[in-house]
Amino acid sequence: MIVAGFGFREGAGADSLRAALAACGAAPDLLATAAGKENSAGLRGLAEELGVPVHAVPPALLQTQITQTHSPASQAAYGIGSVAEAAALAAAGPGARLILARQISPDRMATCAMAEGDGH
Q1: pTM higher than 0.85 for the full model?
Q2: Where is the CobE/GbiG C-terminal domain (predicted)?
C-alpha cells in the first residue's frame, strides 16, 4: 500500500495539495493527514478526484514517527519534524518505510510525502 501523507496550512485548496502530490510522482492508495484536518475541503476534493480514502492520524501516533525532514511549523504545531512524513508512515502501518520525503507545493501551502507499508 502506498500512502500519501499531507501537511498543509489552513486555507490550502485542492490545487495546492494536488501540486504537492504531483511533486511526489506516485499514485497513492490512501491519503493521510493529522486528525482534525481530514475534513478540509481541499483534501476531501483531492480524495474524491483520486477515488481513495482519507485517514486521520491522531497526534500521539504522529509523534511516534521518525521523520527525515524538519519544518518549524510542524514542530510548533505538532511537536514533529514533518506532518506529511509522519502521517504517511503512521497510516502505512508498522514497519512502513518512507519512499519519498516531503515535497512542498510551489505556493508553499501544502506538503506531501510517500510511505509504503501494509496499512494501518
Answers
A1: yes
A2: 2-115
Give the residue from 37, 55, 9 showing the smallest Cα distance to 20.
Answer: 9
Q: Do residues 96 and 67 make contact, with C-beta atoms less than 8 angstroms apart?
A: no
* Euclidean distance between CA atoms 49 and 14, whole angstroms: 10
Q: What are phi and psi of 102, to 5 degrees?
A: -55, 135
Structural domains for the chain: 2-116 (3.30.420.180)
CA distance 118 to 86: 16
Residues 55 and 49: their CA atoms lie apart, in Å, by 16
pLDDT in tens, 82-95: 999 999 999 999 99
Position 31: which residue type? L
